[in-house]
Amino acid sequence: MRLDKFLKISRIIKRRAVAKEVADKGRIQVNGKLAKSSTDIKIGDQLRIQFGNKVLEVAVEELHESTKKEDAAKMYRIISETRVGNNDNNGN
């Protein structure tokens, strides 16, 4: 399954066009390698997605051509979710 389609169906990213844009800007890695929107995703792959100041790492658990909203989260398992960037701990 294409990366952009997986991100949309799993509802990690709501729209396929946005998923394609994020991937093509070099913000997604699959198994540690930069991925394009057309990258083929398999069960067991690990995705690292950078959204602005947040990095989400997930493992692909299931692949479906379509899914109900309540089943979408079963398609992946969150490994980690971290905030990156400017921490305002310096009193500003």
Automatic annotation (TrEMBL):
Subunit: Associates with stalled 50S ribosomal subunits. Binds to RqcH, 23S rRNA and the P-site tRNA. Does not require RqcH for association with 50S subunits.
CDD domains, sorted: S4
Cited PROSITE patterns: S4
Domain RNA-binding S4: 1-64
Pfam name, any one: S4
Superkingdom assignment: Bacteria
Protein source organism: Enterococcus viikkiensis
InterPro entries associated with the record: RqcP, S4_RNA-bd, S4_RNA-bd_sf
Chain's role: Key component of the ribosome quality control system (RQC), a ribosome-associated complex that mediates the extraction of incompletely synthesized nascent chains from stalled ribosomes and their subsequent degradation. RqcH recruits Ala-charged tRNA, and with RqcP directs the elongation of stalled nascent chains on 50S ribosomal subunits, leading to non-templated C-terminal alanine extensions (Ala tail). The Ala tail promotes nascent chain degradation. RqcP is associated with the translocation-like movement of the peptidyl-tRNA from the A-site into the P-site.
UniProt entry keywords in alphabetical sequence: Protein biosynthesis, RNA-binding, rRNA-binding, tRNA-binding
SMART domains xrefs: S4
Family statement drawn from the similarity comment of this UniProt entry: Belongs to the RqcP family.
SUPFAM superfamilies: Alpha-L RNA-binding motif
Protein name (Swiss-Prot/TrEMBL): RQC P-site tRNA stabilizing factor
